[in-house]
Amino acid sequence: MKKMKILLPVMLFLVLISCKNNDFIIDSKPSGKDSIWHTFKIENEDIRVLEVNSKYFLSDDVILTKDQFNYLSYYNAEKKPKSLIMTDFAKLWPNGKIYYTINNNVSANLSANINSAINWLSTNTPLTFAVKSSSNSNFVKFNSSTGNNSLIGMTGGEQLINLTSDASVSTAIHEILHACGIHHEMGRNDRDNYVTINTSNIYSNKMHNFNKVGVLASVDVGIFDSRSIMMYPSKTSDASFAKNINQNIITANNSNIVISPNSYPTTTDLLGINMLYGNEKPYLDYTVTYNKIFEDGLSGSYENEVICTFTFYADKAKTIPYIKQYPVPVVIENYSEQIINRVPDIERTYKQSILIPAGQNSFSTYGKDYIDREWGDIYFLEKSGSRPIYPSTHYR
């Protein structure tokens, strides 16, 4: 049984992912003179949809079907169960299997990027892809176009994923994930807790890109991720989108946070994909082990290494290791507490997304349990470790 080890910094409360930025560019093609704006009130949020030539744009790169548009109309300003909206609005691909074909107008270079995107998702997620045959009535067709866009979820029949001739692997993944039913990260219900949309620097005909589409789903998955491949960058070079391209369109509420989409799906992105298509909640066995480093019997001072081990099983009896051929993301809570010069500090916690590598079912984090006593009093204390988060959408 394999497991990985994670060493926890004692006082780490901010998790930043250092990765290469992709070449994501905000595509502003849809807006035009012959456009009609529709505004729907869903869960007290305004959802704006741009209609151009009988196409309905939830954002510049997300297209709605007529049925999806009608669902918004039906639920407009009505108090209806959100679960119905989620079920009816964006449908999933059965068993996570997506049939596809590549249009003959796609260049060899773009075709290579599409295949790289498919290979990455096949290797790192529960999604599987197969070339369409005559018996597959529902499928994706990759098409070379003047803009990058996709329908949201499985819509039935042939559905296009449009990509520009110079679209990167990252852009292809971004649009494929829309076709899988995944929305933009800045559309989460809780996004205002983490970022500010600088509406004064965004043209009004681009504000639909910041619809809080989270109201169309039941929950936000994981932690808000400023590096998500489904996130827009903080700035855009598109002068038809931003009034001043040198100023932010999105600003992090925490100045230490970097807003920049990653080249490939982050752990948080994978959490969302797994929640939709993993269809499983493994059973968790959580143990804490203390390894003694030193102990002073006279003063009562001591130091222990704290090993927190998370092991996942496929069955309730915890006899069958839960092992997948793709990485499995989970969320845990790390904690840290200190007493310095006899002055106690509050326990600090932060959530962390962990990626269990393919072929493994266990990981451990390493913390500290240290007490220094003087004259019977605790002069210095340091405790840190990790624990599960319940209730969890990722394990039980």
Would you identify the CATH H-level superfamily of the largest domain? Collagenase (Catalytic Domain)
CATH-assigned fold name of the largest domain: Collagenase (Catalytic Domain)
* Total separate domains: 2
Give the CA-based shape. globular
CATH architecture of the largest domain: 3-Layer(aba) Sandwich
Q: What average pLDDT do the residues reach? A: 85
The run of helices and strands is: EEEEEHHEHEEEEHEEHEEEEEEE
Largest sheet: 9 strands, mixed
What would CATH call the class of the largest domain? Alpha Beta
Distance between the termini: 20 Å
Strand content: 25-35%
Number of helices: 5
Whole-angstrom Rg? 24 Å
- The helix content is 10-25%
Instruction: For the largest sheet, list the strands in their spatial order.
Output: 2-3-4-5-9-10-8-6-7
